[in-house]
Design brief:
Oligomer: single chain
Number of strands: 15
Strand order of the largest sheet: 7-6-8-12-14-15
Shape: globular
Number of helices: 29
Helix content: 55-70%
Length: about 700
Amino acid sequence: NDLANVYRDNGEGRKAIEFYSDALMLHKQNNDLLSTAITATEVGKTHLDLGDGDKAVGFFTEAYKLNQRGGNRAVEAKIFYHLGSALEFNYEEEKAIAAYKQGIVVAKELKDQIQEAQFHYRLALLQKRRGDIKDSQINIEKAIDFIENLPSKVVRRELEINYASNVSNYYEVYRDLLMQQHKLSPNNGYDIAALKVNEQAKAYALLDLMTPSQVNFSAQASAQGSKDLVLQERELKQLINDKTARLIKFNIAERSIDEIGEAEKEIKALVSQLKELQAEIKQKNPHYTKFSELKAFDLKQIQEQILDPDTVLLEYSLGNEQSYLWLVTQTEVKSFSLPKRSEIEGLAKYLQELITARNLLAKGENIGGRPMTLESAENEYPKIATELSKILLSPIAEELGKKRLVIISDGALQYIPFNALPEPNKVDNYQPLLVEHEIVSLPSAATISLVRQEHKKNKEAKTVMFIADPVFSPIDNRVKNQGFQTMDKRINELEEANLLIKKSAKEIGLPLTNQGFPKFNVVSDEIKQISELLPAEENKQMLSFNASLSNLNKESSSYRVIHFATYGLANSQHPELSGLVLSLTDEQGRLQDGFLQIHKIFNLTLPTELVTLSNCDMRIAKNAQAEGLTGLTRSFIYAGASRVMINLWNTNDAASTELMKRFYQKTLKENQPPAVALRVAQLEMLQDERYKNPFYWAGFQLQGEWR
């Protein structure tokens, strides 16, 4: 079986079936009914992978009969799932629905909520395809209700391993169903309901990035004793998980009804205890509750308290079959259908490669999958930008005027500088949106509500703290007492100590030497020019060894602005491994924790007005989902920052320094709001012959508060 699994995983299905057949024969000879049923299921899955639905159904049916004699309910549930998939493949939809419904009964008996959710999801998909919208909506709502009441990381792992699925698929189906109903009944608010589901999906993605076990909520507790309650909640949840796993094993092993009943009674009592404990935490620690609950999207609050007559909110959602755009103003919500994800993201990725052609060509890479000169890329850019603008902005061109645009993007669109897209009504003569619009990004609509509720100014805070040029290796020439005899030892220690950083860097394509991260580009000119705008006592420079995680933890609440210049890792494959790399060693070459991961950012106290990731070498994974980038910026906001400014790509050092100098001059000296200051600085760059190309200015994006 193991050999067969290896061949199937490598795409050699025919070879896998040969080994499965041998295993089947051996299991039958040994009269091992359970192993025979499991192997027959694997053969059926392999035939389905090869496109032979009839053979797949045959093997799943055989597995079901064998398992009836062997009597394993957990195996039975999996057989029903795969049988339903094969019947769907054969267009035997009624039989598929029956198989899924039988699977739900078994999963319910096993108390396996993830499997039950997946059965409801597959039913919803099938019913959606058949046009049974109401039944489909009932099933997808049940599926989502299950997953939102389970630990997100457990759900993600189980769906990926057992079903090659993910939670975002659930929300996408739900959103599509609501938008289909909106087309049929445009005045019944289905599009607003779909927008709420889209926000709900973003809230769940945040919980998937972070778990209470990683976030030190007790640090933000509003009442004495909240820390102990949070610890009690973690322990109680773990106990419930353990007891539930034990109950599933009881069902599999067919333990007595009395034993199973007693286990269920015990779990029920623990759940009741957990609810009482959570009610107490809610009363004592509102911050924890705000994080842990999937808070409903409050459209009325956003329209009445957040938006103004000169601001429109644009929220995009990309889907495999259909994408959508919602336009929200103070008085109305409008929705629009857009092309499917693959079409939009194909253009977006190509546009991003065109605008960053200088960087790609310097590394010897192609653009759009083919060789291209810089001149060709610059000539191609306006054409592709116009094409993307027509898709994303033409439906709302008449609504834009000269208003502020608050953009909530999705997928690969999060890597696109909207400020450099042409005005949809002026595509014949390229004029970037920047000229007539102030543009701000948000991870979600709910984010700005949180910022305005939570942010508290520190009246005693100094102006700017710079964290730059960290030391990444114990054999950096800045480390004292280096001896050649210890070099190999230090490299080995570095390798072991920074496995998470190395894993994340590899996944996003950042090449590391055996010495770890290369020394970061010197950013002294940028820091020098910005610091000259302020009195010496109003800025602090944490450079070299001082650019450490421990110093950040001590000082983060004492400055209005925190300016980072280091490597940034935006990992979409494993978003929890996104973060900033600070000093990994001290002056004596002793290794230290310097990986500022997302959960550590949450634990910071940041009553800051602005976090700037300006000259950061922001490495972004090619996976278009962009959870890593979103999680990175969102974590700073949840830690208390009002705004986060990032640069989407590595810019020419001189251009970055020039833009930062102009930006800080306007916001620190002239007291312009950061959103206004950034736009004015970018407009000045646009008018400067040296820097008018969008490569030099468009990557700088502001997320969060615009006032």
